[in-house]
Structure formats: structure tokens, C-alpha cells
Structure to design on (148 residues):
């Protein structure tokens, strides 16, 4: 599916809709796009779908990982993981984080900014979201699910 956004608010709303319609427990989202494309804005929308205020969501560039407790649509409890791999240079950083928990979430959903940095570790089954910076405030957002 291809969506067009003309403002940051629209990108947040698209993230929220995407989460409500497409995301299920166990999903991993590879969120691609250049610096400033709107990956974190889109993630704020995903978080909003789970009742997390957007002010709580920031690019976890220094933390590498943000973790939010959430409730899924079936009322079961779990987490939203927001991973930013921009600073990853060495493979062992990921191992230190504990790959399994985040790339194969059991009671969670994982959103990954800069998935290119850990391409070879990404699970075959995942959602691909690519945000293209078209102009000023215009973005094209492409979403598809990869199945094994
Ligand atoms: N249509 C739009 N959608 C999203 N962001 C937009 C849009 N138009 C302008 N912007 C601006 O682009 C920037 C997007 O920032 P954001 O932090 O979401 O990018 P990012 O892809 O996460 O970057 P990084 O790789 O640095 O983490 C914000 O400053 C936002 O205001
Ligand atoms: Mg970001």
C-alpha cells in the first residue's frame, strides 16, 4: 500500500491507523527512510494507537531502545519496543542487547529505525515501512508485509 502525507500530523495519523489495522502481537516493523524522513513521527502514531502520549516517544538514538508497557487489543499485556540502530556499528552491540527478545518479540511489537544497520538479523517475517522524503513536507509512505 502507498500513502501520501503532506504534514507531520498526517504522518502521525497514518502511523496510528497502520497500528490499528495491521499490527498484531509478535510483529516486527522495519522502518526505513533517510535522516528526518519521519520515522519517529510515524512511530509516535503507532504509540498513540496503544495509548502512549507522543511526548513520551523520542528517537532512542542514545538509549538505542525505548520500551513501553502496552495492552493489546485482546487486553493481554505486553510491550512496544522502539529500537534505533543508527549508531550500530558492530554486530556484538546487538548481541549485548539480546537479539531474540526484540527481533522475535513474544508478547510485544518491535519498531526498528535504521534496520539497514542490522539487515542480516532481521526476521524474514516482518512489516516493511519506507518513508520517502519527496519535498518540503511531502512524504510517500509504502507499507508491505513480508512473509517467510
Ligand atoms: N509529512 C511529514 N511527515 C513527517 N515529518 C515531517 C513531514 N513534513 C515535515 N516533517 C518534519 O520532518 C522531521 C521528521 O523527523 P523524524 O524525527 O520523525 O525523522 P526520522 O526519520 O526519525 O529521522 P532520524 O533518522 O534522524 O531518526 C520533523 O522535523 C517533522 O516536523
Ligand atoms: Mg528517528
Amino acid at each position: 500500500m502507498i500513502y501520501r502525507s503532506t504534514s507531520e500530523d498526517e504522518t502521525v495519523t497514518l502511523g496510528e491507523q497502520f497500528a490499528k489495522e495491521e499490527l498484531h502481537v509478535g510483529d516486527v516493523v522495519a522502518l526505513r527512510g533517510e535522516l528526518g524522513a519521519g520515522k519517529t513521527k510515524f512511530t509516535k502514531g503507532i504509540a498513540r494507537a496503544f495509548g502512549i502520549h507522543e511526548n513520551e516517544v523520542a528517537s532512542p538514538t542514545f538509549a538505542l531502545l525505548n520500551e513501553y508497557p502496552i495492552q493489546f487489543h485482546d487486553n493481554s499485556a505486553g510491550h512496544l519496543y522502539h529500537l534505533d540502530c543508527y549508531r550500530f556499528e558492530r554486530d556484538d552491540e546487538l548481541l549485548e542487547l539480546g537479539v531474540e527478545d526484540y527481533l522475535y518479540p513474544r508478547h510485544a511489537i518491535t519498531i526498528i529505525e535504521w534496520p539497514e544497520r542490522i539487515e542480516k538479523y532481521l526476521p524474514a517475517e516482518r512489516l516493511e515501512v519506507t518513508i520517502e522524503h519527496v519535498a518540503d513536507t511531502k512524504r510517500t509512505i509504502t507499507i508491505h508485509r513480508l512473509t517467510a
The chain has a mean pLDDT of 91. The pocket of magnesium ion (ligand 2) is lined by residues 39-40, 59, 113 (CB under 6 Å).
